[in-house]
Amino acid sequence: MVFAFLFLAPAAALLLTFRVVPAAGALWHSFTEWDGVAPATYVGGANFARLVGDNTFWRAVLNNLVLVLCVPMWLGVSLVLALLIHQQVPGWRFFRATFFLPSVLSPVIIGTLFSAILRRDGPVNRGLETAGLGALAHDWLAEPATALPTLVMVILWGVFGMGVIVFLAGLSAVPSEILEAARLDGARGWTFVRYIIVPSLRHVIEFWAVNLVVWSFTSLFAFVYVMTGGGPGYATMLVEYQLYLEAFQFNHMGYACALGSALFLMVLGVVLIQIRLMTGGDD
Amino acid sequence: MRRLARLAMVAALGAISASTIYPLVFMLLSALKSKREYLLNRYGLPHEPTLVHFANAWTYGDMGQYLANSAIVVSAGVLLSWVVCGLAAYALSHLRFPGRRAVFLAILGTMVIAPQVIIIHCT
Amino acid sequence: MRGVILAATVVFGLALTSGCRKAGPPPAGERPLPSGPRAGAGGSLTVWDWLSADPSQGVGHWLIDVDKAFEKAHPGVRVNHVAQSHTEYYQILKAAEAAAGEAGGPDVVMIHQGSRVLDHKASLVPLDRYLKPELRKAIVGWELTSEGLSADGTPYAVPVAVQGNAWYYNKSILTKAGVDPEAPPATWDEFLAVCDKVKASGVAPIACGEKEGDWADWFLNSSSFLELSADEAAKLQRGEMAWTDPKVAALFTRLEQLGKRGMFQEGFLSTPLFPDAGEVFMRGEAAFCLGLLSDVAHWKEFGEILGEGNLGVMPCPGTGMIPVGGGFAYGITSWSQQPDLAFEYITLIVSDANANEFLKQAGSFPANQNFDPRLIADPNAKIIASWLAEKRVAAPLTGKIPTEVVESIKREGQRILSGQTDVPGALKAIEATAARTKAGRAK
Lengths: 283, 123, 443
Hints:
Chain A has 283 residues and is mostly helical. Chain A contains 13 helices and two strands. Chain B is flat, with a radius of gyration of 24 Å.
């Protein structure tokens, strides 16, 4: 018992200092008007009232929800690729290494690279034009219809490798006898995945899904900042990015904290729903 | 038929690998081009490769200092994570104590806080 | 067994995601301030700016000369000149404000004239007790660095450069399109006609950079004279005229017009204003370009690349006016331990001799009007100088409004040019932001 307390103490201390206390401070400041330097003035629920009527915020929420809907796609791609590598298709070692490459790049670098590559006169469009598909050439990150989907695909590029590694780790823990037996029994393709793999990897899949959802709400700042700045207009505005604008560009710390509190509740809500859906109430 | 399917699959995987390698290649090629050449010949191979940007990054860009900073942050971070997380994970997975599940959920809960919110109070 | 997998993946995940979260700009308070002696420690003066990153030419080179001269005149003092990033300059400045007085903080800071000075007023030393009348008279631009944005207010920064926008054009492209390059369009309709001819000849009429929404902001500032008188512009800035006013709508409609008629180069929505839009113009891929008067993206830079006699410059067609303001200024930080020395440094920067050097080396118009006019040799610079002398200038429309409203204007501009909204819709959104900030400031 004492050991448990001792072992948990350092983690608890770090989390309290660097997560809980600042978050509590942010919650308190949600009810104030503050420019970050002068003392804060209490304004009650004014920030939240403004939040409810803020079109930018609701557009950002919509965009965030679109991203949540893309999580199954991000996860599915990693799972399929992990399965292929696990089955040791020719060249699997090479693929495993190259798939992991994007994960060693910081999002700022990924964003800068793709901003250059996806330009109207960039290699992607040039490639399409050479292949005779010139009609498909777009200003990918700057047209309102393609900006958010392009962001989703760039994020996929940045994150799929990590997912592959996580699923490979999970797969290696599945006893090979189960897989062999299933294959001998004639399970193939989709049936194999659905009835053998997914149940075996259930916890890993749940973990990675929750991780991706939380990550999509809290860690995409660098991508948006470098590639679109929330634009064109508000097409790729995310709640996290709006938080940054309000806090560090407009000096409305109080409103930014309100946004932060709303974001926290949103993520918590989505994750709880997600866990309920996935575990079906058990566990 | 099976061979064709297998071939197609390997080709697809190869295409994905190409997509992960190309941006790094592009980055390296761009680093070797002079400013003027980057303007005029953005996507081809450099005609007159130059190492001046690496030199500039080191002298004007303070790269040495930043690399040292990164080394310190990363090694300290990894070491600290290893110790702290290892201890906590052991406690949560192998030791029985009341409130175990609550602590675990609380830790997961702190992962949900957006970093910008935390930064506001660190300045 | 399952528990072990879960625990392992949780640990792994926590380690991974803590790495993921580190990716992003370093938090303002944790960014290491440049190392160096404590601000004001005897023997060193720390100066911050965003223009000296390239010390081999232009402003960067000129500042090195200034620093050397200062050190010679003040033996024992070392000028610790720090070049900060242009895009993150104000975030870095905020970090310095939060760390006020700690080691390495700046004594002298560069700052944009206009709303930025007001935003950071609390960290700047009021300069009224330092300013000698001759200096005050020689320098223009005080209304953009003083309390209440009026020339009589207490100044918080000393203007160093005169900055503004003008339309530059490529004479050879105009000639090929069948337009007389020596007679630039004199009205808005002529301008549109010329652009049509250029487009018909296969070249993009206007080089535009809307990635951050900045081009629309420049365009509105350069063309506000077509719709708003000086009084009306002032009313709009003070919040006494609504953004939904028909005159403002007419101005934004001109922007929409350019977009609808396809006057920009392909991919303009993802082109950053600096340096790419200027580069499009310098590569000869567009006939017109909205540029600056000083330092960068201006007559000196364009002229050198486009070639002798190939560059032309014109004011807002139909009105002969240009927006002027927002050049850089220098201020003294409120935590500096040696404000007197800091002011002497600033005095050296804006001295008559250095005004001449600034003009010569950076090709920029100094705020100190005592510069030697014979140093203006470039024909386009001469034309611009004549506009300045004839006072065909006014403060930029968006130069005196809160940052939030400017941001709203930029985003609505992007939305107009990308077809997501029409002018009335855009103006409604801008007015909502303006009304809210006005209410906030009134408290």
